[in-house]
Amino acid sequence: MTSSATTDRSGTRAAAEAGPRADPGSSPTWTIAQVAEEFDVTHRTVRHYEDLGLISPERRGTQRVYHRRDRTRLGLILRGKRLGFPLEEIRTIIDLFDAPRGRRTQLEYVLGQIDERRNDLEQRLRDVQDAIAELGEFERRCRDDLGQLDRA
Amino acid sequence: MTSSATTDRSGTRAAAEAGPRADPGSSPTWTIAQVAEEFDVTHRTVRHYEDLGLISPERRGTQRVYHRRDRTRLGLILRGKRLGFPLEEIRTIIDLFDAPRGRRTQLEYVLGQIDERRNDLEQRLRDVQDAIAELGEFERRCRDDLGQLDRA
DNA sequence: CTTTACGTTTACGTTAACGTCAAGCACGCG
DNA sequence: CGCGTGCTTGACGTTAACGTAAACGTAAAG
C-alpha cells in the first residue's frame, strides 16, 4: 500500500520509480515528491521544516533539489519527533552537528550541549525502559488471570 | 527554588507543607495545589487532564480531592508526555490498566493492546539508543578535534 | 462580618505543527 | 500551441495542549 500508491510516473523525467534520478558522474538528488514518499510525510511537512530552517535544499531555478544531506537531516528530524522533541529544539540539535568547531571555545560549547542532550536522552531511556517493564508486569498478571479462567 | 516557592501556608488547614493532609485512620488525600506542586504542573494542567478523562478525582462538595490512584495516573500521564504520546492515546493506555478483565475476550483484547504498545515502545527504545550512540560518536570526534588543537 | 487564601467554572487566547485550498509557473508531449 | 503533471508560493483553517483572565464560591482567621 505504500509503494503501490505511486501511480506509475516512470518514463516521464526520471527512470527509477523510487530511487534518485539517474545522474551519472554526480551525486544523486531527489525531488520533493520522492523524499516525501520515502519518509512517508507530505510535501507540506517537508516545506514546513524548511520554513523553520531545519533543512535547506538546493534550488535549481524555482524547484527544490534534495541531496543526501537533506535526507539525513529529515531522518534525524523524524526520529526527534518520535521522541517527542519540538521542532525548534530539534533544529538546534541537528545544527550542532554541522556547527563550526574551529576554536576551542566553540568546541567546548558543543561538548557542553552534547552533555545536556545526553542527560535528556538518558531520562527518556529510563522512561521507555520503565514503561516496557511495567507493561511486561501487566502482561504477566493478565496471563495469570487467563490461566485462572482455564482452570474453571 | 522549588519548595521555597511555597510561601509558608502551614498552620492553616493542613499541618504538613508538602505531604498529604493529616487524616488518621483513612487513606491520605491531596488538594489540587499539592499534586500540582508535587508534579510541577499548574492547576490548569491538572484540570485539563480531568476534562479529557485522564483522571477523575473525588468531589467533596465542589472541591476536588485527589487520592493515591490519581497521583499514580498523573505520573503515568507525565511520563507518557515525556515520551511524546498524545494525551488521548495516553488515556487509552492507562485506562487499559484499570480495564475489566473478567471475560476471556476482554483479556485477549487487553493482551493484544499490550503487544501493540510494546512494539511502539520498543521502536522508541531503539530511537533513543541510536540517538545516544550517535551523540557519543559525535562527542568522540569533537574530543579528537580538541586534541588536534592541543598539539598546536 | 469582612478579609484572605484557595478553589471552581466559563470562556476566549496562544503556540506548534501541520492541513487545505487557490492560483500561478514550467516543462515535456501530442 | 494547448494540455496535463508536478512544483511553488501564499494564506487561511485546524487540532492539541494548555495559558490567562473574569467572576464567583467558601471556609478559616482576625
Question: What does this protein look like?
Answer:
- Two copies of one chain form a homodimer.
- The first copy, chain A, is mainly alpha-helical and 152 residues long.
- In chain A, 59% of the residues lie in helices and 4% in strands.
- Chain A has two domains: 1-85, Multidrug-efflux Transporter Regulator, Chain: A, Domain 2; 99-152.
- Chain A has helices at residues 32-38, 43-51, 68-82, 87-98, 104-150, and strands at 58-60, 63-65.
- Chain A has a two-stranded antiparallel ribbon.
- In chain A, helix 3 crosses helix 4.
- The longest helix of chain A is centred in the last third of the chain and has 47 residues, at 104-150.
- Chain A is flat.
- Residues 1-17 of chain A have low confidence and may be disordered.
- The A-B interface holds A 79-85, 96-97, 101, 104, 107-108, 110-111, 114, 117-118, 121-125, 127-132, 135-136, 138-139, 142-143, 145-146, 149 and B 79-85, 96-97, 101, 104, 107-108, 110-111, 114, 117-118, 121-125, 127-132, 135-136, 138-139, 142-143, 145-146, 149.
- The structure holds a DNA duplex (30 and 30 nucleotides).
Please identify the top-level CATH class of the largest domain in chain A: Mainly Alpha
Average per-residue pLDDT of chain A, rounded, comes to 87
- Coarse shape of chain A: flat
Number of DSSP E strands of chain A: 2
Give me the Rg of chain A, rounded.
22 Å
Oligomer: homodimer
Strand order of the largest sheet of chain A: 1-2
**CATH topology name of the largest domain in chain A:** Multidrug-efflux Transporter Regulator, Chain: A, Domain 2
> Uncertain spans of chain A, ≥5 residues at pLDDT below 50?
1-17
Most extensive interface? A-B, 38 and 38 residues
CATH architecture of the largest domain in chain A: Orthogonal Bundle
Number of domains of chain A: 2
Helix percentage of chain A:
55-70%
Strand content of chain A: under 5%
Along the chain, the helix and strand elements of chain A come as HHEEHHH
Largest sheet of chain A: 2 strands, antiparallel
In whole angstroms, the N-to-C terminal distance of chain A is 44 Å
